[in-house]
Design goal:
The complex is a heterodimer. Helix content of chain A is 50%, strand content 13%. Chain A is an alpha/beta fold. The chains are: A alpha/beta, B mainly alpha.
Chain lengths: 113, 196
């Protein structure tokens, strides 16, 4: 499968994500990111049989709350295997960030849906 | 040519030749002295091996020991820097507890400082993979487990919500305990690196 779509979080959403849920009171929550961008683009990638590249570079931090509210919830909905099949994470500035996201997708223990 | 090679070439070798000439001259002065002209091949081999070892130790063995020490020092420096960054994070929560309020700026400060800490962990990971590849996987996994646990506490739970406005005694204690755990874990890794 090829990469046919790229979602640059810092440009298309925010470079300073914070909370997990919209109800947490922060504008740039993981839930909002999931609903507005990640889920629709992931669904398209799944239906189209391609990979969505999610670029998390150039962000001023990436808290666990944001990762679990977006990627964690996605993994709970679709299963980690399906998510990892259609999503690739790019984090050249900070490889640890990529590891954290993949870990959350693989084992969404920080997520309370 | 490095300093040690120059010492060998310009000092030791000429001295060895000069000593050889002096011994020959003494043998002429002392007429009753004789030299054994037959060489025992085992004695010669013994001499050559001794000379080889004498040269190998400063060039190779010492170099390996010093390079090893240098690599360990770099790794330990990275971990000490990481400890300093983690103290900054702990203190954001502690100070908020003292001040009686936790602001959005405090939360952002924690997030950004964890980002800085992640870069330090990345740096350590890369360096240990080069310096001690056989030890890197176990050490990196241990460090990441400690790091993610502390990071999850301070960027995932109630502290990540906008309703979190105050650090109570319970959370402050939790923060101190968690920080102590990661600090001890990192210092243990430092001890392990010394023994590599």
């Amino acid at each position: 499968m090829n990469i046919e779509d790229t979602l640059v979080v810092a440009k298309e959403f925010t470079d300073h994500p914070a909370a997990r849920y919209i109800a947490d009171g922060d504008e740039w929550s993981g839930e909002r990111f999931l609903n507005e961008l990640l889920l629709p683009r992931f669904t398209k990638a799944m239906e189209g049989g391609y990979i969505l590249l999610v670029d998390v570079d150039k962000m001023q931090g990436c808290p666990t709350s944001f990762i679990s509210g977006s990627f964690g919830v996605l993994s709970l909905q679709y299963g980690s295997k399906e998510v990892l099949k259609h999503i690739e994470i790019k984090s050249e500035d900070n490889p640890i960030r990529k590891e954290r996201i993949i870990q959350e997708i693989t084992d969404p223990t920080n997520t309370n849906p | 040519m490095n300093f040690q090679s120059k010492i060998v070439l310009y000092i030791f070798i000429p001295i060895a030749f000069a000593l050889g000439i002096l011994v020959r001259k003494f043998s002429e002065i002392l007429p009753n002295s004789t030299f054994q002209t037959q060489i025992n091949i085992l004695d010669l081999a013994n001499l050559l091996v001794s000379l080889l070892i004498a040269f190998m130790i400063p060039f190779f063995v010492t170099k390996i020991i010093e390079d090893n020490r240098g690599v360990k020092a770099c790794l330990i420096d990275e971990l000490r820097d990481l400890l300093k960054i983690l103290i900054k994070i702990r203190d954001v929560v502690s100070n908020a507890h003292i001040n009686g309020s936790f602001k959005v700026a405090d939360r952002d400060n924690i997030i950004y400082t964890f980002d800085e800490a992640e870069l330090k962990v990345n740096s350590f990971q890369e360096q240990i993979r080069v310096g001690f590849p056989e030890k890197s996987k176990k050490t990196n996994n241990k460090l990441k487990a400690l790091f993610f646990e502390y990071q999850n506490l301070l960027t995932s739970r109630e502290i990540a919500t906008s309703t979190f406005k105050k650090v109570d005694d319970r959370f402050n204690r939790e923060n101190n305990t968690a920080h102590s755990k990661i600090e001890t874990g990192i210092k243990t890794i430092i001890q392990e690196i010394h023994k590599f």
